[in-house]
Every structure is written in C-alpha cells, then in structure tokens.
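I'm stuck. Please check this protein.
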Amino acid sequence: MTDFHHISVTDTVAMLAQQPVIIADIRDEQSFANGHIAGAYHLTNGSLNQFMQQIEFDQPVIVVCYHGNSSQGAAQYLAQQGFEKVYSMDGGFSEWQQSQPFERDSDA
C-alpha cells in the first residue's frame, strides 16, 4: 500500500481497544509534553530513523497532529516507506482532547 486512510477519533478509540496500534504524534515538543494520547510515540525528524527500526511494517500506525492536516503528509510518507496500515486521524489532537482522556509529561 502506498496510500494512507483517514480515521475518526471515534474509530481510533475503537481500534485501540481491539488491537495493538502505534499512535505517531508529530506535533512539536512542547505541545506533545502538554498533552498526548497515552502511549503515543513522539515522531519527529530526529526520531524517524529509530521509529523505522522499532516499528513493524505490518502494525497499524495512526498519525496525529494538531488538527488533522499535517498528519496527512506524514501518513503518506510512512505509507511510501512500506508501512502497510497507515491512518491520519481527522481532527487531530485538538478533537481528541475534547472527548478522550490524554496524558501530560510530568515536567510540562
């Protein structure tokens, strides 16, 4: 697959409850520290190589940004790198935090 799929916050919650899913949060350091989905991987240019080595290509990856725009480009990139099940979460973290629990880094 070389394309990604869109996924809603509701469907993300359902998928997380059903199977292991990688949440790849691409927001800046401060935004990530102030709040992110529990267990999210902070995916940055600096952590991309490590991400590519650690994550299995057949494991679902849901890319999260602020509002669901930037995540589309990142999701497309991951799909082109060989990840088989890549999603961009519509509405981004701003929509997630309106209805779902999230965690903060202790030093934020």
